[in-house]
Amino acid sequence: MTMHYLDHAATTPMLEEVIAAMSAAMAEVGNPSSLHTSGRRARRIVEESRERLAAALDARPSEIIFTSGGTESDNLAVKGIYLARRAESSARRRILISAVEHHAVLDAAQWLADHEGAELELLPVDELGAVDPQTLKSSIARDPDSVALVSVMWANNEVGTVQPIAELVLIAHEFGVPMHSDAVQAVGLLPVSFAESDLDAMTMTAHKLGGPYGAGALLLKRTVGCVPLLHGGGQERDVRSGTLDTPGAVGLALAAELATADRADRATKLTELRDRLVSGVLAEVPDAVFNGDPANRLPGNAHLSFPGCEGDSLLMLLDARGIECSTGSACSAGVAQPSHVLLAMGADESRARGSLRFSLGHNSTSADVEAVISAIGQVAERARRAGMAAGPAAKENATSTTTMAGRL
Amino acid sequence: MKVLAAMSGGVDSAVAAARAVDAGWDVTGVHLALSRNPATLRSGARGCCSVEDSHDARRAADLLGIPFYVWDFAERFKADVIDDFVAEYEAGHTPNPCLRCNEKIKFSALLDRALALDFDAVVTGHHAKLVDGVLSRSVDQAKDQSYVLAVLRPDQLAHALFPLGDSTKNRVRAEAAERGLSVADKPDSHDICFIADGDTKGFLAKQLGERPGDIVDASGAVLGAHDGAFAFTVGQRKGLNITTATPSGEPRYVLSIQPKSNTVVVGSSRELEVDQIRCVRPVWISGQPDDDFECLVQMRAHGMVTPARITVGAAGELLARLHSTQRGVAAGQALVMYDGDRVIGSATITAAERQPVAAETSA
Fold first, then answer.
1. Separation of alpha carbons B226 and B331, rounded Å
2. What are phi and psi of A175, to 5 degrees?
3. Catalytic residue among A226, A309, A325, A331
4. pTM here?
5. Is A313 part of the contact surface with chain B (CB cutoff 8 Å)?
6. What is the predicted pLDDT for the residue at B359?
7. Beta strand B222-226 pairing with B213-217
8. ipTM strictly over 0.90?
């Protein structure tokens, strides 16, 4: 069976060049913090990687903090900046984040609310999934001195909607509030310049770019205070401890370089493929709903709802035909929960449950797209039958037994 | 044949799925998520609802080389099993949630969905047999689960496969070990899967609140107090908290629960004995018999089997006259009728009585 991998937003295949470069780095011994020859060689590789990553993201090398990936970077930014800001002024308790953040931001902020006295405020989004800058403005303006930080993702991992980051940063800074953005999905697909964005902190990770798992970075302006979460050797600017992962840094930097180098061409190609996928699916399943912002979205993201279908059924039927995609909902231990993103966009629970995310990436082809289009009609029809079969809970057993009577 | 193997994460369903693979069927494993907020790790002997159980099922599927998915049936399970369980207790009955889950979830919601998705059958690890389509007891009488499956209609059983019916539980465990399944020595699950701490009374109190009432004897004399009649079961002896002893010093048992007056009626073990069981909603494995008939009946899971004569009324009500008295027969439980090891049918108990000693035999 030919496999069609359409889940690049979950992870994307590693690039051959990255595998080769990392394999070479893995063959060398040396802790970058060691003082001898091997250590200095490893350190040189790490620092060159830092410079290359900084160049790819238009940042300064000293703004790069290597981490284990997106989740750690988000946690470090949200918790670290909150704790630093609150230490400067105990009035700073409010955390303003969008309602459609990844759980790495959402749950980190919720943890601060539960354990560190934070007041979590979710910025609502419109039906396309975007935050209105005026919403942020009025939210901060209500009491600017009490805001610890703002965090709004660059582009949404589920529905692909791109947020008005530049406007949001301007507003946050107007009030002197630092802003973080999770740019995990944006880097390599959208033009992302850390310097131009004027963000105070930004999350990125390697495995969405053709790089390795377990390697990422938090870009952090030199002036922004951030309390560490991992204590130890203080390797990364005293904000993050842990032996530096030399092959990981090599893979991260190379993947970012390669992904940003051909970004514009790839984005154009993916947009064309995506548009073909969406129009093809809508032609096959006329009542399907294309979610998110039709124009202002990630190039490779197609997020669709199929009324009357369960996402679980759709996914299984496509998987059986070699088509791999996602139900696009946050996955808690394999149990699909209705997506908080779609619910925040005003979708009802059944639409949220009957959704699929197809995400295209660097090795996607029109054959992948045509495979989806030729399968989706039958798949949706079958899933709809299954959805009706397993429809609303039966209530007929309410005709339950009568009371125990007539005992002698 | 394309089959869906329901995999709880326990040893039985893992071996059942393995045998389905051996049979040459095209098998897909599915774990039913029955709780929206499952516990991360299994605790005690309640083995079907934690994330760890789902993980165990996944690892078994990996070993068998079959696709595996987790399907969310939490909403259906709550409506059809948990809410029903609470409502039944509230009505003074003693429900069997495993039976309800088989009837409404595994062989209804899941089976319907499987059939719509082009599967031919659902495979489970129940200890029961299908002999020419007739539900029958497992060779392992101690582990037999035909009682909790007897509520299934022929059209449901037509798409059910029970590969374990000819094996003892020990044999299943040994086979799991031979196959290298990590769940081979996982403890058996007991109790009710959705009551994590095993405290049914506490669970019901949380759902229904405290509803203090009287504990009375058959004459109506008040002997004690309770926090909610729903927490009692016919035949229950412990936890009555009655301070006044009976003159003869013999223990008291719950005779009945009266939800309207919120009273619990207690009495001696002799008063607990019944020989006439009234039921509704009969389900027949191979059609309804034309006349009265003799058979064996079982009135609770792992309960005693006793001979009875069955009369089915015009409106589907069913009367079982037991040849000897039985104790602890509770409304809400199923009465399952057997011909030897073969299930004839089942019905839901509504009342249990003692025939008047000199009663005339009805026609």
1. 20
2. -100, 5
3. A331
4. 0.87
5. yes
6. 46
7. antiparallel
8. no
